[in-house]
Amino acid sequence: MCTREGVFSGNLSLDMSEGSPWRIRRSGFCGMRSKKFDGYIDLDSYDTIAMKLRGDGRTYISTIYTENWVNSPGQEEDNSWQAFVYVPHGSWRILKVISLVATGNYVFVHDKTPLCFPIQIPLDSYLPTWKGNVIEANMEMNPSRVVGMSLSLNAEGGVPGAKTGPGDFRLDVDWIKAMRSL
């Protein structure tokens, strides 16, 4: 039996309120992020992020933030590395075998197994991004300088057959771990 340790849920909306005090240019995005770690988490001894999730048929975004070494000096933003995770509706998922499906500039971690499997994302499958867009550069993540992690959701995009658009969403998170796949 699985117990839920965390829930990421809400209603994804494309509405933009006229006269809002927020300078919103687009909508349809929601995320949750860890606090910035005190120091770094060193994942250099690991090659994979594993997650035990129960989803709603949407594609979620897993982000790892590393110390800023790509951007201009003096810039405060951390570097972000993203992988897209499709979580079918229903049962807890713990993926043992992954397949990577390239779709445009994105990599989706996806498996068609109908029951329980751990979702594993190799660290080298995370793509460098800037404000949600993939950076077209030959770069490698520095796994010894992880400063935070997040899970998020965008109303647009996803693997073929995934639920998209506005509406309710829910992702149950039992655990997230770093591991060696070898």
* Average residue pLDDT: 77
State the CATH architecture: Sandwich
The total beta strand count reads 12
Rounded radius of gyration (Å): 16 Å
**Helical coverage, percent range:** under 10%
Q: How many domains?
A: 1
* Strand percent estimate: 35-45%
Order of helices and strands: EEEEEEEEEEEE
Largest sheet: 8 strands, mixed
Write the layout of secondary structure elements.
Blueprint: E1 6-12, E2 29-33, E3 48-54, E4 59-66, E5 79-86, E6 99-103, E7 106-110, E8 119-122, E9 127-130, E10 133-134, E11 146-154, E12 167-179
Give structural notes.
The model is unreliable at 95-117 (pLDDT under 50). Strands 2, 4, 5, 6, 7, 9, 10 and 11 form an eight-stranded mixed beta sheet that branches. This protein has a four-stranded antiparallel beta sheet with strand order 1-12-3-8, with no helix packed on it. A hairpin with a 2-residue loop joins β9 and β10. It has 182 residues and is mainly beta. 0% of the residues lie in helices and 42% in strands. It contains no helices and twelve strands. The chain has a single domain (29-179), classed as Jelly Rolls.
